[in-house]
Amino acid sequence: KNACDFYCVRNVTGRLMVGLRWWNHIDEDGKSHWVFESRKVKSPLENKTVSEAESRIFWLGLIACSVLWVIFAFSALFSFRVKWLAVVIMGVVLQGANLYGYIRCKVRSRKNLTSMVTSYFGKQFLRQVTTS
């Protein structure tokens, strides 16, 4: 169940609802490279392709599930239910990996958007200066 949830959130829900995805790529030298992507925006003034409601549902679900798994971990630890501790730790790790990956995607997309807006307005300014 944990693996299916991890796969579904990482590969389907994140890409469809908020336009973010991440994965690990190993090159020919055996080095691991993490890739964090966001949906490409054609221009900074383009209409939003991601619904605000879907985005809020996605982030709320991602954060709430992470908090819930941490609560389960403390519950299993303090109630001495060792047989469930392995399952709960795996849930915390997988949900934490998804949360970390999507936060990295979101931060990177904001940096890309900022650079695109700066580039766009810089080009507009240069165009006005050169035509004047």
TrEMBL record:
The gene is TVP23C. Belongs to the TVP23 family. Keywords: Membrane, Transmembrane, Transmembrane helix. InterPro entries: TVP23-like. It comes from Pan troglodytes (Chimpanzee). The chain crosses the membrane at residues 57-78, 84-103. It is found in: Membrane. The keyword Transcription regulation does not apply. It is a multi-pass membrane protein. GO terms for cellular component: membrane. The keyword Repressor does not apply. This is Golgi apparatus membrane protein TVP23 homolog.
